[in-house]
Amino acid sequence: MTSATDSPLPAVPRLIATDLDGTLLRDDKTVSDRTIAALAAAEEAGIEVFFVTGRPARWMGVVSDHVHGHGLAICANGAAVADLHAGGRLVKVRPLERSVALDVVSALRVAAPGTSFAVELTTGIHYEPAYPPLHLDPVATVAVAEKLLHEETPGAGAPVLKLLAHHAELAPDDFLTVARTAAGGLASLTRSSPTALLEVSGPGVSKASTLALCCAERGISPAEVVAFGDMPNDVEMLNWAGTSYAMGNAHPAAVAAASGRTATNEEDGVAVVIERLVARRRATRSRD
Fold first, then answer.
1. For residue 25, which phi and psi values (nearest 5 degrees)?
2. Which of 83, 186, 187, 189 is most exposed by smallest CB count within 10 Å?
3. d(C-alpha 237, C-alpha 215), whole Å
4. What is the pLDDT of residues 52-89, one digit of tens each?
5. CA angle 265, 270, 274 (to 5 degrees)
6. In angstroms, rounded to a whole number, what is the distance separating the alpha carbons of residues 35 and 265?
7. Burial 88-103, CB ≥16 within 10 A → b, else e
8. What are the angstrom distances between the C-alpha of 92 and each of 81, 83, 89, 110, 142?
9. What percent of the chain lies above the pLDDT cut of 90?
10. CB-side exposure of 120: number of CA atoms within 13 Å?
């Protein structure tokens, strides 16, 4: 594991893929002036930037002004690709089948009694009475998960992006271990919250797999990608990218998956690396 200042950089980086919360964003959910400047410099140098997050598209306002070029962001842990230039319009959806989500609900009710659920649709979020309410979202429907996942309600059959599962007593990593043992063969399960909140996507759906699709469309190989992350939902992406950095505040699983480590999100760790990438790119061009 090398630091941001001494780790080798890819010869010709073409794309930066960065998580948001705990990574690009500071703890107050803002983007620092230094990071804004670094993102702009990367785009000016011809390096594409993709925001790759567990957030839904409707929560992307915090970075929508800092998307250049293509304007796309990978949201909901890879379940959706949104065009932030078009107000967050979804251009790609990789849904969780409702029947599979119901099977996961059944498995977790047995394996972890006391679990409460929310359902993230392309049209918004709905949750059970016991699920911790989200102040960022007006809720359309409060009902048991089995009703929320019925084909006809809510959302008139809108695709399911994620199933969320919360436990009030289990430790976060313990809950993830229990859930993966019980339902890991049904769907992709991960976590990004400091609380015992799990995120369930369709089989094979992750930040990494959707990023791979977006890169393949652009003719970009993993070796040409530099990725940043801090939590278990970033692990696959950090493993996939040719060069990857865990934040100084990262979860141990992210640290183990990354090829390098940078400063914390509060210390603009992403910008620290991007500045090196841009300087390297400019130096290479000046010699050509």
1. -85, 145
2. 83
3. 12
4. 999 999 999 889 888 877 889 999 999 999 999 999 99
5. 160
6. 10
7. bebebebbbebebbbe
8. 5, 9, 9, 33, 27
9. 81
10. 27
